[in-house]
């Protein structure tokens, strides 16, 4: 009797089914966006975060706030370097018509889709940089070291100090306050950055200049 066998098939609740359908629809829309010609490759989420690389994207509001701060700090015609901070880079690229230039130093080679502005970067080799990336050639460096360790911060700090003319905007955990001051001379701001997914560690911004983040 075929009908009796149907009772053994587990049934999803209508709520679970609706959530599942919504998830699949979202995935399809995302794929559709990525293949359509009008897709903006610079929008946050166009490259999804890879937790194995310790990637956690900022919320849209935080990325925009940090991008605007970087533009103001760099000044007219300024140069901005984003070190391991791709969601800020993506927001900067959305600012069409703004008078500044930007490059992204990133370990994740998926960001090579951004062409010449992408520079492969491994914090374990802080000064292994292209020859055309001249010392002290950026008006501001915004950096988000991938790990909350003094070793990672210290090595990233070498890169930051090589690149910047002076201004530094660092994003890292609140627990790194002492080390941030020690290695980069930066102080914690009042502004609290948020991520698109909540992190267990309290996150903060640090600067070494009079910023709009206080």
TrEMBL record:
Main location: cytoplasm
Keywords per UniProt: Cytoplasm, Methyltransferase, Transferase
Catalysed transformations (reactions): L-lysyl-[protein] + 3 S-adenosyl-L-methionine = N(6),N(6),N(6)-trimethyl-L-lysyl-[protein] + 3 S-adenosyl-L-homocysteine + 3 H(+)
Cellular compartment(s): Cytoplasm
Record GO cellular component, one term: cytoplasm
UniProt-listed InterPro entries: DNA_methylase_N6_adenine_CS, Efm5/EEF1AKMT1, Mlase_EEF1AKMT1/ZCCHC4, SAM-dependent_MTases_sf
A GO BP entry: methylation
Any GO molecular function: protein-lysine N-methyltransferase activity
One Pfam family it belongs to: N6-adenineMlase
Protein name, per record: EFMT1 methyltransferase
Species assigned in the record: Certhia familiaris
Gene, per the UniProt record: Eef1akmt1
